[in-house]
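=== RUN LOG ===
request id: a7f3
mode: sequence -> structure
chains: 1
length: 199
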Amino acid sequence: MKKLIAGSWTSGSFDLDKFGKGLLLFRNAPIAGGASPSQVVFNRPTRDLIPAHRRSFAPEWQKAAGILEKRALRAKELRTLHYNRTTRPLPALHVGDNVVVQHHRSKRWTTPGVIVEVGAFRDYLVKTPAGRLFRRNRRFLRLHSPTTLPHSPSPAPNSVHPPVSSSSPTTAAPPVPAPPADTSPAGPRRSTRLAAKKP
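=== RESULT ===
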């Protein structure tokens, strides 16, 4: 309304004709809630300077427009319900959680980091191993558990001899000496038969 009054001045004088034409258009302009001042007062738009058929302002057309508007609103609700049927709220993150940050161009989860601060509007301050700080929304963060090398189990002590009870002492058998090896040089073999004497 202030802009309408300010635009009605011409050469330092207030133009009532120009203000009246602007007021007619203002009455049919939608305001907060989607209805114009004429619809709020008369439940229908009024004629203005824009050319229109007289039947365009009949009550039945206004009722038909209201029905179509309700159908469009219902269709929008169904589309929203269909679009959000598989959505789920993301769990909140805490300070010290290991996360990976999604790259804003490649859309890949490549930058690891640690949460160092939690904001009030689902925003988190992430510190990377290089020392850089990023502030990202929850949708661009994914919880990540760092990979660690598996610990090798300590070798079990090898028990060569079973434990000996102190209550029943046992005597060890003396070692059996090995037979001495034959170190004599091997000579030619001779027959032990007696040779018969010739007559």
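=== NOTES ===
The longest helix spans residues 59-83.
The chain is about 25% helix and 15% strand.
=== END ===
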